[in-house]
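Narrative of activities, Objective 1.

The group set out to show that a structural description can be obtained from nothing but a protein's sequence at a throughput compatible with the screening campaign. Below is one input-output pair from the validation batch, recorded exactly as produced.
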Amino acid sequence: MKVVNILRSAGALARTRWWNHNRGDDVLRGLPHWWRKKSIAGTARCATLVGLSVLVAALCLQPSLAVAVKDVPYGEDGSPPDNEAQADTDAFNDAILEGNVEDLGVWYHVKFCGWYRLSFADDMASLPTGSAPYDYWTTNNDQRARGAKIKLIRNSDRAVVHEAFTPWTGNDIGCTPSLTLNSAESYEVRIYSTASVNDNTITVKKDDVNKAVYYSVARSAFTPTASSTIDVYTGTHAAWNIAGAAGWAMSRRNGGLNGETFVLYDQACPGGTSNCLSGGNNYIVTNTSKFVIVHELGHTLVYKANGGVSANSSTGLTNSTCPNVGGTHDFNSLEWQSGAAHEGFASYYAAVAWNKTQESNCTYVLHHWNDWNLDGVDNDTRVFSCEGAVPGESDAEDYAGQFCGAASNQGSQLDWMRFFWDLDNKEGLNTTDIVDLWVASSPDTWTATGVGSGAGFPSFELEAAADRLGFGTAWNNQESNGSLR
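Output recorded for this entry:
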């Protein structure tokens, strides 16, 4: 058997060498061709057989190798190899004959599919019994790392074999292309907290000082044993909650934006302890709430759509009926319309991320209990409808009016979220339409505070923008609830 293998190897080498010098003739592709091609001078056959004899003698003196000599890679249609393939084959066979190859391994085609491991506190299992469900990511099951960057490093020399974003949609969400890997090598597989989703880039960073992008070593020493698709997973960390939720929201609705980079820092707002938008970037400290993460991303969406300029808004209205919490705002605190609309849009963006807008029901989850009926105790449900009435409310249209005695240019985040949801769900506008409406109202020039109405005030400017964009009928249909005073 050993002699047969050597003869086969020698034959392959002879064919390689002969082809190099006889590229215009299909003479030595196999012994049957030798006898069919009788017009070829016998000298060629004799020379080849002599060469084979010498080669066999030489090989018999060499130690047995664990690899076989490569055959020339002819095309399926019998066409000869190109120059590059021929040169590669020659180099391979030379290395074998010279004893420079010991273990070449086997080449396999391997695809890696990345998954985020999640640890949210607003999954349905963590909510009060009987809570109305939202539609997406209701459990903490692993989710595809859509659009995430995956990097492969060959451990033997730490060379980067592959580094690229994965698809965010289609059949191969979160998967690399099929990569050619060798069984004689091991590879490190990393998943990074940066992703390309719906024509935008989302990147989660540790903080705004070092600005380091997270990565998880999903496999430290992967060695292929067959051509296959391999699922790889991140660890459980706040970064993957943020990356997963933000990537999902962007895949659902990008607000008409493309080519933008969204940076989310895994830390509290500079100089504070809360979530915020600052310097065009999100700061996320409530990283176990998928609704909070996407709410904050919603602020950045309209900020970037408006050319990197924030709305002129205020959430500092002092009142005793519907007071804000800690001097900032709450879902049902009475605010100037500039602040109420600003927060309301962000909550609408979270609502459409986690609910199907073609259905009439919509569920929103707060990260804390709330006092909806204003009895002085924060023990009312934190799970409520995006369009229905909250506890104690007689209808689902004007919380600020019913509970807070709102005057002109005053409203609530709850009312504005429901208004934007209804434009989407009932009137057929989508998030891109609503973002366009927002930008057309010139929010950076709004009259942020003060009782009043007319030009400059948010409700007036938003309605005027709706008229200019052809959304006037939709606006009027939903404005009748009276909350946009």
